[in-house]
Amino acid sequence: MCAGSFNLFLTTGTSGGTWSSSNPSVANISTLSGGALAMNPGTTIISYTVAGNSCSSGPQTAYFTLTVNPGAIAGTISGSQNICVNTSTLLSTTGSSGGTWLTGNGAIATVYPVTGNVTGIAPGTVAITYRVSNSCGTANSQPFIINVSPGADAGTISGPSSVCV
Predict the structure, then answer these.
(1) 26 near 68, Cβ under 8 Å?
(2) Is 64 exposed, middle or buried (0-12, 13-18, 19+ CB in 10 A)?
(3) Are 146 and 118 a contacting pair, CB within 8 Å?
(4) What's this model's pTM, rounded to 2 decimal places?
(5) Rg (CA), the chain
(6) Per-residue pLDDT in tens (0 to 9) along the chain, 165 residues
């Protein structure tokens, strides 16, 4: 299960038993219905117990190991928000590793998809995002705005190549 998801557990055993979770902070389960809410990443044992009867000695319990996985976390991007044409900056994120960096406009700035290294291409403003996916889904960061400024430009000198005294 993924953190934040809900699942209904069923048993082939005798009805009227009681459900429980060995770690309610990982998955909280309704003692009567078997409905479980995945709370936090981790592992818990889901158990179903029925009282004994004349054919069995004492209560009977079935166990199921449940792993709760974290959702995809894109996190918050940090780094320099101002670069110049033909210079680079390395961005970072507080999100899960293994994601992909994306640029909103490759004509203004490129971003290396694996490392988050951004290079200014032309003056302008561009949004950079980080996208991460796992078995629980996909998450996109809030856009990180970078301003690309033109570098210093001495220009081209024009005029006569010779003059008279």
Answers:
(1) yes
(2) exposed
(3) yes
(4) 0.66
(5) 29
(6) 998 889 999 999 889 999 999 999 999 999 999 999 999 999 999 999 998 777 877 899 999 999 999 888 899 999 999 999 999 999 999 998 899 999 999 999 999 999 999 999 999 999 999 999 988 889 999 999 999 999 777 788 888 888 888
